[in-house]
What we know:
The structure holds two protein chains of two kinds.
Chain A: E1 2-8, H1 16-31, E2 35-40, E3 46-51, E4 54-59, E5 69-76, H2 80-94, E6 99-104
Chain B: H1 4-27, H2 30-51, H3 57-75, H4 89-103, H5 110-120, H6 126-133, H7 137-154, H8 163-185, H9 194-212, H10 217-231, H11 256-272, H12 280-293, H13 302-315, H14 319-333, H15 335-345, H16 356-367, H17 371-384, H18 388-400, H19 410-419, H20 423-440, H21 451-461, H22 467-484, H23 511-514, H24 522-534, H25 538-542, E1 555-556, E2 559-560, H26 563-573, H27 610-621, H28 626-630
Antiparallel strand pairs in B: 1-2
Helix pairs in contact in B: 1-2, 1-3, 1-4, 2-3, 5-7, 5-8, 6-7, 6-9, 8-9, 8-10, 9-10, 10-11, 10-12, 11-12, 12-13, 13-14, 14-15, 15-16, 16-17, 17-18, 17-20, 19-20, 20-21, 20-22, 24-26
Family (chain A): Belongs to the YciI family.
Protein name (chain A): YCII-related domain-containing protein
Organism (chain A): Actinoplanes cyaneus
Amino acid sequence: MRYLMLSKMQDTQPDEKLFADMAAFIEEMTASGVLLATGGLDPAGFKIESSGDDVTITDGPFTEAKEAVGGFALVEVRSRDEAIELGRRFRKIVGDGESVIHQVFG
Amino acid sequence: MIDARATVGVVWKQESARIVAALLRMVHDVGLAEELAHDALVTAMERWPAEGVPDNPGAWLTTVARRRAVDHLRRSRRFDSTDLEPPDVAEQSDDVLRLMFISCHPVLDRPARAALTLRVVAGLSVPEIARAFLIGEPAIAHRIAAAKRTLSASGAAYGLPSGAELSGRLASVLEVVYLVFNEGYAATSGDDLMRPGLCLEALRLGRLLAELAPDEPEVHGLVALMEIQQSRSAARTGARGEPVQLHEQNRGRWDRLLINRGFAAMLRARATGAAKTPGPYVLQAAIAVCHAQARTAQETDWERIATLYEALERLLPTPVVRLNRAVAVGFARGPQAGLALVDALRADPALRDYHLLPGVRGDLLLRSGRGAEARTEWERAASLTRNAAERDFLRARAATAGTAGRGPELGAMVDEFLAGLGSGTASAYRKSLARMRRALGERISLTTLDAAGVAAVVASLWPDAAPRGWNRHLAAFRSFAAWAGFPQLAAELKNRALPPAGEPVPVDPLLPVLRIPSGVPLRERVLWLMVRESGAPIRAVLALDVQDLDLARRAGPAVAWREQTAALLPELIAGRARGPLFLSDRRPGPARRPGPADLCPETGRRRLSYERAEYLFKRATGRTLRTLRMS
Lengths: 106, 631
């Protein structure tokens, strides 16, 4: 089963240790075949809305910086517990903040 | 709140390969390494709930497990202070690779390799493996325990193989990974999630292997093949669970992410294998890539696929590969060209119960405008498949192709025929007719059958039957056909000549050598030819070792052969560099290990014994091997 983890922007500036730990973690997860895709997101983004026949586009940002999503990871795991453990290790590396994890269907 | 107990279980699955591999380096015994790793796991179960889960739980477990191993080595006085040095990253990778080579060691049979690999590399529990293979837990537990004992008794080398040995050992690992994948992929029964889960386990093993052995094109080929096959998993079955053929699948349901991963793996295979001839996995992956690149079924580059299958057939001339090639040729060069290849396969006994053969033939016939014959073939396919959804699907196809032959159906008529017979005759006929009705098609109308078709099918059913048995099968069908009012259907069935009564069976001992029936395995062919051509003592022939053969001079110690043997020898040697030329089929059990001179270092199998060779010849000819020398 697949899970998508969306992580909010961090307040803190990443230091060299964080970069190194993160790179090692990503390498390990890629090698073990768990991590399918990951990347950072432009926190601003743009919005596309439909209403009747109209489709409107609005440029972001829409939320406070710390509420905006800053990165994602798509993982393929055996169970919810495995997704939780991966998320836990990720949070231990990046420090205070929050991520939201959704199961991906289809 | 994180559930520490759940975390322990999850961490074990993620880390067990690295932990067990690190311990294996120290203790050189898979069973012991796994036990020590489990001790560490128990410690984690005790301490994590109270102390919290460590930041890097895998490293924590490895440290505790290594300490256990040091204690163990101290107790058994095998302690070496270098064991205390934790291995660096590259060594850790080598350790895991070594573990995979050991769990897929050729000294184990295939089911044991698969079970042990899932246990120690993928970290699955015995109940999980049992569910995945639809086998009882005690059987799996026994299989794994026996595999560990065999490894320990065989003294299998723990070093990483190199050179020519590496490719053979790697092939064994790839085979196990693909076996696990297919076990999950081919599963169409059961709703247990563990079976599709096997595909994921195989993918993870393959992706891991690609990092551990990045210079091996076949590894990347296998990964590409699995990623692309897996990308179609959602599109392979329709709404009612029926199979959907590749060219009819909704390509929008193919998983683009996995396809792209497959393409990336294929690029790595090409980059590492540029100078080498592509191996079977790279070729199969290339075929999968062709399909994945076609935006619609019509855009498929069938000419290229047919060419790839031709290359694959040279490496793997299996009936299934040949059948797939026929499908590709049928699309690339027209149904007639495909039919010519399929028809050549109809006499192959290996395919006689394979429902895809008549299924493919039906497709090609329909496209040639021969609907009635297509219908007949799909009926045959339907009665051969064991899968209910597939049977319904094939019946439905049969119903839409051509007009139904009016008249009585074969299956129902046979039942009626047997019911009207005395019990003795009925049970004698039932077995013969059961095979024929399955092969001809349960629902086939007798009016659509013809004598030539019946004769062709019957010939593939019992190719090796002795005259008496053959004639009995034919008699059953003749009797049935006459009863049903269709005696002409048996017109082309020819009896085989029986030996005159009262005399010993005059089987020409040379017959199986001169005109070798398709069922005789290569090893027996070469042995019989060599005995006959050399006239050497049987024991001298069986004593030959690969390294002592002079293929150019056609001679070995005390044995000289001629051209027929020479033509087949390379195939029998199959790249082996040393060890007995003629090997037994099975590997010896730990209690019955022969001396090293009688054991093949590459396959782990023992030298073929005189008794077994004698038995095989007697079974085939009724004579003793010695008669071959006299001839």
